Amino acid sequence: MLNSEGILPAVIHPIRELARTLICSTLLLTACTAAGAPEAPALSSAMVVTANPHATRAGEWVLQQGGSSVDAAVAIEAVLSLVEPQSSGLGGGGFMMHLAGDTNDLAVYDGREVAPAGASPTMFLDDTGTPLPFLAAKNSGLSIGVPGVLAMLKMAHKEHGTLPWSSLFAPARKLALEGFEVSPRLASFVSRYNGRLIPLTPEDGPMDAYHYFYDQAGEPRTRLTNPAYAKTLETIAEDPDIFYRGPLAQAIVAAANTPPRAGTLSVDDMAGYQAVKRRPLCIDYRQQKVCGPPPASSWIGVGMMLGLLEHTALPSGNRHDDWAIIIAAQQLAYADRDQYVADVSQIPVPLEGMLNKTYLATRAKLINPKKAIDSVTPGDPWAFEPTKTAGATFGTDTTDDQAGTTHFVVVDHRGNVVSMTASVESIFGSARMVGGMFLNNQLTDFARDPLDEDGKLVANHAAPGKYPRSSMSPTIVLDEDGDFLMATGSPGGNSILAYTLKTLVGVLDWGLTPQQAVDLPNVVARGDSVRIESSVASPTLVETMRQRGFNVKESSGENSGLSVVVQKPTGDYLGGVDPRREGTIASVIAPGSTPGSSSTH
Q1: What residues are annotated to the active site?
Q2: Domain-by-domain residue ranges, the chain?
């Protein structure tokens, strides 16, 4: 029997059920307190939603000590770097959306990796001018950008932290020393991709990852300790600048410059990195304001999708019509994203034009819920820029950024919100380790072939000091009074935009709870194909979209990892966590309340 959303009955996800048995019992015996009690009144509850139970417990512990959402984010990411190394880590980067609970001010903290000074548009081409195969590019020093997440967390903590920086790494350090069970998801990546994601011989590359995951008999380890990472945490807890200017930085540079396919990362590149605080991009959607980070993030694609939907009949009352409209909106927004979005500090990007309501209304006229668009091509947002001046003409980019990413949401007891997406790019990043951390392969988010089929330079080509385009799209929604309503986001490579959109439509348009919105089937429409998660969607939905002319490809599973928090009118919070990963939700009662009053599920 199908429910009202056209979804199959709830599916038991074995990985998630097994993960629940791994909720940490070894964490957090040492407490720390802030240098002074905050004066602002605390709300009765707070919430943490992450993709891993260890990380959720770390964030919960920080909030129980009176810490802020940013404090919790530092502790969470330090733990994820250890227990979910296939997705994110201190050797990678990320974007943080932050909402100040007392003023409702929004800010973006940008910790995206940057290319070294030695990068060039042709860095991923072989001697014949052919792009390197993805795995050859990934498992190389060429792919390693200057890690940015630690600098970003340091910047955010300086402005919004309440607990001492040095205290926030205790949960991760304890886990690294005492050990933790390998989660089902991590174990599946180690076993399924043996020989592809990490080098198995010295000729393939440095073998640190192999020795970390496999014992002397060549069997995958079921329990891991990481004393090298514990030492790294001890070092950066005392002085995070050492990561960029000390022995750690030198070791990262050495790893990037090790054959095969050595990169050009230098100590000057490391020392010169700076996180950036930016103004968010926002779009008014019906009665709400929806905001996310500017490029090099692709969040503008999410904003465009919402802007296109606002000019349609959604919600129509006919869910099949709604899905057809959503699919067409995705296709139009992805076409513009692929054409125009790149590092805005080096490439002109028509940001105002892409979010211009008149432009979006014009594009929305192409949408017909009963019939697919015959041919989806980019529009001309430059015509809607205030200066009316066209930017450079770039080629069409088909870069397929990978899904080694995580997302989490924290709301603290004073209403401060963090929606943060972090990544090492692909699974296990570059597969090169330093100080117990995996180093990113984010530079493969650049177009490996800098020219399109017509010989035009694409906007997202590699260049010195340039940010590679990212699909990371942490999102915060304000209600009609400007107060916090919702935070969402997901991992999933290019599909992040579609995954995130699903939760926004589910909550804001269809009136679903955050968990119901997360449980909706994933539908991803980029280019001329439409992936529908047939293991969740009803057969009727799949067949109806085919009848309307969409090129449907059924997907047995999707790599989303949504974390969502919605504030109810009562001021309490509802969470949603993706059953496709190992996430958990913690509802945290205010510090000083009865012990054991927090709940994790």
Answers
A1: 405
A2: 14-277+399-522+558-570+585-600
